Structure to design on (869 residues):
């Protein structure tokens, strides 16, 4: 299913912690302007996949190409310069810094630096709390801050880990809607790891089901949502 | 591993632990015999060095139990040694009865250790290290604060009766120091094998879990500090006997740092490690001294040993993966690695 | 009353030095969660180098600059070559390695320079001048206030107004997240150590002329006082370090002035014990830090 226009191409990726791999020969691709949802049970290797792609975990085997560049050996702190932003699970807001400082941090590597107005327009709630410390924010605000901070880096690919975790359904759908708008408007590609299968598939173009570190299925999102057998086997609904 | 094999090793382990009960006693008896024979064959200077090893062994053994088994790092044991040494000096000045004097030195240092230990039990990591460092830096200066009693930097001389019969002084010193050292080791060996040793390890590994298992965390920590302080007091008293004088210059901060180095290099938490450490504390400066003499440089003297100790300490800490911890339980680490 | 005023100014001057040194400890603590027990020895080493340059060139100020620059280099080297490779799973490991560095530095200094006190001149007169008939403070005291004040202002600007400061703070608080945002965390750590060591070197250059002179152990007691100051203010708090430094400086000067200089070391120890047991998190620290 991969084609020449793919932004991210992963081939035969094997990775994990220490000697025991969590992921086995994972192959996938994400095209520009596409949202790909990665689904699967706890422990399927979804978070490990994102951590490996952004360089937090080493690659045991396989190849990761991003826009023609081999990412093997690229340091974590350089990823953002190549256009990959990773919003880790648990949001990763630096709670000791203010909202504004967190956002500035996201765009720091860009020269010249651009004002953050665009991000504040996107998230009006953050603009009101500009000078609040990270730990004073609600869960939804933190998630918005984490995503906003990643967007401040002007990435071409967003790796998003469980954005709906612990959020009210209303806020989750707000965030999902925002992602869809961004994709449509800016051509952002998103690799979206989600437990919340329904809301992930509601915006995704494509879905990948991971099971025990291997790809169990890869389908168009609407097809995946309709495939009752698959849902029962791997997604539990 | 098959079940039969596993059963076999379990039985072996049980036999081993039964045998283990007599290992310390046997080791100490053999050690005593070796020491006595050595004292008749070694020249006086070597005997003096041997005695110094014995005196160091008292404090390193106590410290390795505190740091290795209970996880409390003390940089103040040099000051506790000074406490024991000055107590003995003041006592000997009035009564000149060595054995009660040594006992008193141990008692006084134990009390001092109790006070520090009470504070220490509430502190962790760098805070405890900082407090004990302050003790090591400040206590020697007390001799100037109360110079009528302690005679400031000059220090005090230690009155001693000549050894009984025709025994040379150095030989007599070895016997005294090693009697103290071997008794200390024997005491500690049985202490750490018992319930107290188990409590200490439990506190070191996980305080919360220890507390849930009914171990009195604070009590165990204070007790560990007190025990190691008593050992330091004995060691200090023995040093007073060896040098026949006490002065603040004999108990500088460097001494406390040397003690930490000795137990880290010897292998934390092991009494044999304490012995290796005590040996190094005498051997390394001696080697450095002879190098310095050959080079004819006054600046090298002492400083070469200092540098050498520092380098060894840093290299050991960096080379042993996992730092102190891997030296504490090499077996456990190996097992974990195997599982990964 | 005149004496009290004089002691107060003297104490503030001494406290300013403690504040700078405590600030250096806090900088490293915030960046790496290590109390740098080698800070005193490192500062002495750079002071020796500084005074060597000063006596070779005849220019105190050249030596002064070399000492501070030496601090930057030494701090970076210590982090890059040694501290980076320490296993931090137990807080004891960092402490023990730092103590090893103390032994190495003091040994090497002794081998090169010997263990006698070497005189260290002050760049300004240490004779106190009179204001309105009251003897208050010396030109050197003014220099101390100026230098420490400048450091405090510069560090504040660095951390609150610059991107590098923001990166350093982020790297210290959340290393993994910061790396994902493109912050070179390792580099920030090296920079933190370098800055801290330079501030420590400054404190050394400010305190050594007021003590017996240059000696490998010259900063041992200062380290204890500054550690007390840092703990008093809370190891996490730069503001606390400054206030703590001034408080400890004043207290020790009053004790020395009214009870005798011999009592001062005891007073430090007692103060440290009281602080550790009553306000272990310090006066200015919000986070629970004692067990960290």
């Amino acid at each position: 299913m991969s084609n020449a226009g793919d932004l991210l191409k992963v081939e035969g990726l094997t990775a994990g912690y220490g000697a025991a791999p969590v992921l086995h020969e994972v192959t996938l691709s994400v095209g520009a302007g596409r949202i790909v949802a990665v689904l699967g049970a706890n422990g399927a290797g979804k978070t490990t996949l994102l951590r490996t792609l952004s360089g937090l975990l080493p690659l045991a085997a396989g190849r990761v190409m991003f826009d023609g560049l081999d990412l093997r050996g690229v340091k974590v702190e350089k990823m953002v310069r190549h256009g990959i932003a990773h919003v880790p699970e648990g949001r990763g807001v630096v709670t000791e810094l203010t909202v504004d400082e967190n956002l500035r941090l996201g765009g720091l590597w860009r020269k010249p630096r651009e004002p953050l107005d665009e991000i504040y327009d996107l998230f009006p709630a953050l603009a009101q709390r500009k000078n609040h410390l990270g730990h004073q924010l609600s869960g939804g605000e933190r998630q918005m801050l984490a995503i906003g901070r990643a967007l401040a880096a002007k990435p071409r690919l967003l790796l998003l880990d469980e954005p709906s975790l612990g959020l009210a359904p209303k806020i989750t759908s707000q965030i999902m809607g925002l992602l869809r708008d961004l994709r449509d408007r800016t051509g952002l590609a998103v690799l979206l790891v989600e437990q919340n299968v329904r809301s992930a598939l509601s915006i995704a173009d494509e879905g990948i089901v991971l099971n025990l570190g291997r790809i169990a299925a890869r389908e168009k999102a609407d097809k995946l949502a309709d495939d009752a057998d698959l849902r029962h086997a791997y997604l539990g609904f | 591993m098959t079940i039969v094999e596993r059963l076999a090793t379990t039985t072996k382990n049980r036999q081993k632990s039964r045998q283990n009960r007599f290992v310390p006693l046997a080791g100490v008896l053999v050690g005593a015999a070796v020491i006595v024979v050595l004292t008749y064959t070694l020249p006086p200077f070597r005997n003096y060095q041997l005695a110094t090893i014995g005196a160091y062994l008292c404090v390193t053994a106590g410290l390795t139990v505190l740091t290795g088994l209970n996880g409390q790092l003390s940089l103040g044991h040099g000051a506790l040694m000074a406490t024991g040494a000055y107590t003995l000096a003041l006592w000997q000045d009035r009564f000149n009865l060595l054995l009660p004097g040594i006992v008193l030195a141990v008692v006084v240092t134990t009390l001092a250790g109790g006070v520090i230990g009470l504070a220490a039990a509430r502190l962790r990591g760098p805070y405890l290290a900082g407090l004990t460092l302050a003790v090591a830096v400040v206590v020697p200066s007390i001799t100037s604060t109360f110079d009528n009693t302690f005679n400031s930097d000059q220090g005090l001389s230690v009155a001693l009766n000549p050894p009984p019969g025709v025994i040379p002084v150095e030989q007599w010193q070895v016997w005294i120091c090693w009697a103290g050292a071997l008794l200390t080791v024997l005491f500690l060996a049985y202490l750490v094998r018992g319930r107290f040793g188990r409590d200490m390890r439990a506190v070191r590994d996980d305080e919360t879990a220890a507390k849930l298992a009914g171990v009195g965390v604070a009590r165990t920590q204070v007790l560990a500090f007190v025990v190691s302080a008593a050992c330091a007091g004995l060691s200090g008293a023995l040093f007073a006997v060896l040098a026949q004088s006490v002065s603040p210059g004999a108990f500088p901060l460097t001494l406390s740092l040397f003690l930490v180095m000795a137990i880290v290099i010897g292998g934390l938490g092991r009494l044999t490690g304490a012995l290796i450490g005590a040996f190094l504390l005498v051997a390394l400066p001696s080697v450095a001294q002879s190098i310095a003499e050959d080079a004819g440089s006054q600046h090298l003297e002492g400083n070469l040993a200092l540098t050498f100790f520092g380098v060894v300490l840093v290299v050991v800490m960096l080379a042993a993966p996992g730092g102190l911890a891997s030296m504490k339980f090499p077996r456990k680490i190996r097992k974990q690695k195997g599982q990964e | 009353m005149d004496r009290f005023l004089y002691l107060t100014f003297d104490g503030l001057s001494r406290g300013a030095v403690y504040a700078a040194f405590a600030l250096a400890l806090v900088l490293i603590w915030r960046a790496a969660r290590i109390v740098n027990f080698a800070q005193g020895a490192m500062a002495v080493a750079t002071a020796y180098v500084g005074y060597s340059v000063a006596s070779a060139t005849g220019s105190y100020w050249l030596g002064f600059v070399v000492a501070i620059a030496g601090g930057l280099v030494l701090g970076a080297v210590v982090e890059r070559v040694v501290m980076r490779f320490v296993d931090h799973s137990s807080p004891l490991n960092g402490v023990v390695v730092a103590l090893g560095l103390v032994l190495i530095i003091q040994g090497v200094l002794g081998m090169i320079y010997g263990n006698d006190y070497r005189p260290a001149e002050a760049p300004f007169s240490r004779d106190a001048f009179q204001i309105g008939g009251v003897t208050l403070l010396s030109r050197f005291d003014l220099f101390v206030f100026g230098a420490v004040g400048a450091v405090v202002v510069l560090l504040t600007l660095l951390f609150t107004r610059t991107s590098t400061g923001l990166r350093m703070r982020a790297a210290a608080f959340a290393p993994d997240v910061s790396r994902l945002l493109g912050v070179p965390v390792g580099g920030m750590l090296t920079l933190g150590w370098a800055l801290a060591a330079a501030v420590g070197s400054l404190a050394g250059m400010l305190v050594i002329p007021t003590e017996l002179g240059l000696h490998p152990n010259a900063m041992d007691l200062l380290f204890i006082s500054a550690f007390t100051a840092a703990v008093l203010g809370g190891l996490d708090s730069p503001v606390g370090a400054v206030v703590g430094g001034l408080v400890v400086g004043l207290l020790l000067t009053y004790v020395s002035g009214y009870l005798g200089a011999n009592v001062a070391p005891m007073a430090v120890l007692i103060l440290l014990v009281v602080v550790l047991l009553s306000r272990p998190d310090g006066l200015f620290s919000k986070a629970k830090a004692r067990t960290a």
In short: Chain B has a mean pLDDT of 85.
